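Entry for the shared binder. Reason: the reviewer on the internal report wants the predicted structure included alongside the sequence.
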Amino acid sequence: MSRDIRRLINSVEQPQTFSDGAPASSLQEGGTLVSLDNGKLVVRRKHKGVVFKSTMSRDGNQVVDKNLDVKGRVKARINLKDLIFDKGPDLEITSDAITVTHSFHDVDVSGGSASTDDLESIKGGSNGQLLILQAKHGSRTIVIKNAVDNIHVKGGSDFSLDSSNDVAVCIKLGGDWYVIIAESFQ
């Protein structure tokens, strides 16, 4: 018997059944079945005729196989080493606007041929979302316009992304985006 299973058996709530392969259909109402499935510890509980399955990895972390809907508050601790923003597709300014789909995008001028283009509006995103914008090309300038539409730049002035090393970090609050960090790195 593995150490993880012994720990579960010796916990406050005693499992009704222990098995390395008994079918969940044999579980009695209110019963608990603990088993190993593909090297993972699985706990099944039957409540009102429905069998609920909970999976844990060997290190004790819970595994969620589908979407996890939580009602109420979730308290979590996030280590910054784990904070990685997936980069979305490159965005091209159209009618002075972009539509974000991820939290990190490179932005290019309309048509990719002009030397400069204004960004007045950011569409999409969710309330509280962080957004990182960079210029796709250092030879073209993206001017983030302050307070023309729904973008507000820290300090109240426009900010130019004119190098592929420049970055603007924004947060969405309500329908507006606030540029909270605007840095030029040459």
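Summary line for the report: The longest strand covers residues 40-47.
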